[in-house]
Amino acid sequence: MSTTTDTTTDASTRWTVLDGPDALACGWCGIAVPEPGERPAWTIEEAPTIAGFREDSPVRAGARHTFTRCDQCAQRRAEAGAISQPEASRWHRRYGSSAAAFDAAEAVLAALDMLGRPRAEAHAPDAAVTLAGLVAGGTALRWSGWFMPRRAAGVPLRGATTAPWAHIEREDPDGAVAALRDAYGAVLRRRVAARVPASTTHAAVPAPVTLAGHWALPDRHLAALGGCLLCGVASAVPPASVPGHRLLTPAARLAATWHPATCNPQSLGGHRSLRTSGRRAAGFLCPPCHDAAARVGDGDTVDAAARDAALAAWLREHQPEDVAGLRVGGTDPAFDQRRTPAWAVLATWDTLRGVTRHGNVTPWAHLR
Q1: How far is Cα 49 from Cα 189, in angstroms, rounded to an integer?
Q2: What is the pLDDT of residues 198-207, one digit of tens each?
């Protein structure tokens, strides 16, 4: 775990100038690395400045700064790679590329270190989703951030911290650590809420029947409204992490319950036709289906893997005898595309025919 140090407002005790032409500062904790050798390094450039107020005033290029990682931060980077780099990992699926997943995992580990939490939390199967709220706060801890877009006031040109994380003021109520504590508090609240039956604090919220006030219908998209895009349920209970219904306006309860999403009806069991070819559907996901979609994708674009995960999750809870042996996390061969279509398939076809399809009274009732 990364060490921390007490800091004061006296800048002279928090950073210093690098000693030696080859020395580099750690881009994370800030300490000097006297002999970086073959360590990976990266360079950032400050934003340019204009020398004057005339239209033809010369533009001065920003100073360039090169950083590396100290031994502790390099070890954290290696651990982040072990967590995020398999392309089948949820980190990779959530962030879309190896580089983005790598950086996100590193930021989460740095955040856990700063909070004094075990790094094992980042190794949990669902950490890419449950700890996503720590990515921004962890990234904000970097010493290199003090040089972007311009070097912070008082920081020397070739600056390094006098001790690991000396640039972080832990007791600042508006600082990076305070923001991290708030973000981690939200993580804990979601964990507790997941263990509390939502029905004890909430009444069901009907699915939106219009996109007005939520988002504009994307070009060439068909609206699939009145039920969940996947299971088709017409009303859903807000997640337990949302405050009780008496504390929210109806619009806030609806926004907290129904998540906007899009899908390709053909990939969810729809028949290919000239009327639907190339057209996507826009609608909303209920909380259980959105959670399942977020586990195998981004939760905003629904595909067959999301449909399989949502249906399997529902079967496990309500009909466990039917789910034995199913492989979840990809398109499951046990789910026949045409026999287990998502509700959006039926809703979009009815939209094209000028017919209104009502949502299901219970999830997946359209399959019965």
Answers
A1: 44
A2: 444 457 889 9
